[in-house]
Amino acid sequence: MSGPLPSSVLFCCDHNSVRSPMAEGITKKFYGSDTYVQSVGVRNDREVDGFSVAVCDEIGVEIDRHQTRSFDEMEEWGDDLSGFDLIIAMSPASLRRAQELTRYYHLDVEYWPVLDPTGLGETREAKLAAYRQTRDQIVERLIGRFGPPMQGREP
């Protein structure tokens, strides 16, 4: 399913520390500021993951200042889910939570099953390889859904 980038996208995963911050950062890098992009987790019990920061740095995406937040915190801070055009869930738990919270809205929720690299690999290099695989899955999904990055194009 390919189409233009909506005016606002919310990425979600379990902790908002690995997959959804990567997706948020990569989307902003690829498609600029024409689209409002945020990310959220079912829970907010971790900081942004250092391996995520490292593999995003490799492709020029900076996520080290990302502030993790949960669905509940997002609502407390006044970000209403109905303000998003599209929610992209990257884990089964975040898909269930997004569907539960949007059942009264006409809002598109897509499920992108993306590898959770936490806990994979014994060595630093093996861990980085797993996180690169996750990053690359997100890149492939973004390009497949919204087209090639807009770098170098006129707005």
Explain this structure:
- By secondary structure, the chain is an alpha/beta fold.
- A four-stranded parallel beta sheet has the order 2-1-3-4, with helices on both faces.
- Helix 1 packs across helix 5.
- It starts with 7 loop residues before the first strand and ends in a 9-residue tail after the last helix.
- The mean pLDDT is 89.
User: Whole-number average pLDDT?
Assistant: 89
Secondary structure tally, helices: 5
- The computed structural class is alpha/beta
Hey, roughly how much beta strand do the residues contain?
5-15%
- Outline the biggest β-sheet: 4 strands, parallel
**Poorly predicted spans:** none
Give me the strand/helix succession: EHEHHEHEH
Query: Looking at the structure, what is the overall shape?
Result: globular
Distance between the termini: 24 Å
What would you report as the Rg, rounded to the nearest angstrom? Answer: 15 Å
- Proportion in helices: 25-40%
Q: How would you concisely characterize the structure shown here?
A:
The chain has 155 residues and is an alpha/beta fold.
Question: What brief labels describe this structure?
Answer:
155 residues; alpha/beta; single chain; 5 helices
SSE layout:
Blueprint: E1 8-13, H1 19-31, E2 36-41, H2 50-57, H3 71-76, E3 86-89, H4 92-101, E4 108-111, H5 124-146
Parallel strand pairs: 1-2, 1-3, 3-4
Helix pairs in contact: 1-5, 2-5
